[in-house]
Task: inverse folding
């Protein structure tokens, strides 16, 4: 690992934790590319390009999380989680992402949840499309709970997705997209 890579590792581990192999537990789509997907003749160049893109995304997400004092949470699942005072996964009957009715499933594509000082603070997602129904649902959440705020941007996931950021304004005044 290069000096820049080890610096990134040292900064990222407190935010994302470690995998069982000791690597950084990056959010979905940000981990290093799998070399086995690059077996053709042009593979070394394509792999290096993919690795360079992922390193850039890793830097972006790490710097973004550092700026707001956030830690990735495996418990976060939906805006119901975000409304809680402690971080624990919803029961399926209440969860709006993985539950029976899951009305937030589409806009929560490529979800990453975040805590601040151990409290549910931010949800980020990267859907490929945001439908009119999704727009209505996002507006409903901000009307349902005045602490919930929204922002959008490009984000770290890429692939022509839109980053949606939903956060609790009582914990963080403003959260900009990455």
Result:
């Amino acid at each position: 690992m290069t000096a820049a890579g080890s610096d990134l590792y040292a900064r990222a581990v407190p935010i994302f934790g470690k995998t069982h192999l000791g690597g950084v537990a990056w959010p979905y789509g940000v981990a290093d590319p799998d070399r086995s997907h690059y077996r053709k003749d042009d593979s070394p160049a394509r792999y290096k390009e993919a690795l360079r893109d992922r390193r850039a995304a890793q830097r972006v997400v790490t710097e973004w999380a550092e700026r707001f004092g956030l830690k990735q949470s495996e418990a976060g699942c939906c805006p119901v989680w975000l409304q809680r005072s402690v971080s624990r996964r919803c029961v399926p009957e209440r969860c709006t992402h993985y539950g029976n009715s899951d009305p937030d499933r589409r806009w929560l594509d490529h979800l990453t949840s975040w805590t601040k000082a151990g409290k549910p603070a931010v949800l980020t997602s990267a859907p490929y499309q945001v439908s009119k129904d999704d727009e209505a649902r996002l507006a409903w959440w901000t009307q349902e709970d005045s602490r919930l705020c929204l922002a959008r941007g490009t984000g770290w996931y890429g692939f022509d997705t839109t980053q949606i950021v939903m956060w609790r304004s009582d914990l963080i005044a403003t959260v900009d997209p990455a």
Observations:
- The beta strands are 71-73, 112-116, 119-125, 148-153, 163-168.
- Residues 71-168 form one domain.
